[in-house]
Amino acid sequence: MDRFTELRRTMVDCQLRTYEVTDRAVLAAAAEVPREAFLPPESSHLAYLDQAVPISGAHRVLMAPMVTARMIQVLDLAPGETVLEYGGGTGYGAALMAAMGARVTLWEPEEAALALAAGALDRAGASSVVATGVRPADGGFDAVLVSGACEVAPVSLFGLVREGGRLIVVEGLGRSARVMLYRRAGGSMAARPVFDAAAPPLAEFRRAPEFVF
In this structure, are strands 53-54 and 61-62 parallel, antiparallel, or unpaired? Predict the structure, then answer.
């Protein structure tokens, strides 16, 4: 057993399982997908820490493993579903969902992160993931994972979700943040909170500054 395999097993047992991640498919994917592949070599030693990790050379951050895994668990994915990871940087969340049998697209508008994603996905054996910097067609996804915190609701992403589909996102910053699950029904998106968690903010979903006179 190499060092990373041992660290991955420890992550699953000591981080995910203790954070109420119980879904067998999610745990199996986390035990299989090499998280170190999604970081540059100089940061790979940080891959299995219980924290978010910046991606060197890009303005993106991998969310803490337990937050990513629990959000995917809440999506309750079925094999063959069409899913999207938005803002996922090098695509760790996308690779997890692909390992669970989903048909996955990574939409990463940040050019530097997208450039790193192709190599990361290939190293992780997740070459089935389609990585793009261009907005996919609306209504094309059963589930959307937003991999970062949104200070305001990510309304511009709602159109990507087909009828009956769902979108999961961390809304708010710091201690006030919570994970929200949206579901499309009857043409509208209804939300409910599912658990408290913090994540690095996505700059494109920060609240516009207010002018004070």
Answer: antiparallel
Q: Which two tokens stand for residue 3?
A: 């060092």
* Spatial distance between the Cα atoms of 134 and 96, rounded to a whole number of angstroms: 22
The answer to whether the CB of 168 falls within 8 A of the CB of 180 is yes
| Residue 1: predicted pLDDT | 54
CA distance 160 to 30: 26
Report CA 37 to chain centroid distance, whole Å: 15
Render 92-123 in DSSP notation, one character per residue: HHHHHHHHTT-EEEEE---HHHHHHHHHHHHH
Spell out the domains of the chain, with CATH numbers in brackets.
3-205 (3.40.50.150)
**Per-residue pLDDT tens for 74-117?**
999 999 999 999 999 999 999 999 999 999 999 999 999 999 99
CB 154 within 8 A of CB 199: no
SS3 86: strand
- Structure tokens that stand for 16 in this block: 């995910």
Give strand ranges (E) for 55-203.
61-62, 82-86, 103-107, 130-132, 141-150, 161-171, 178-185, 188-196
For the CA atoms of 70, 72, 180, 169, what is the dihedral angle to 10 degrees?
A: 110
Answer yes or no: pTM beyond 0.85. Answer: yes
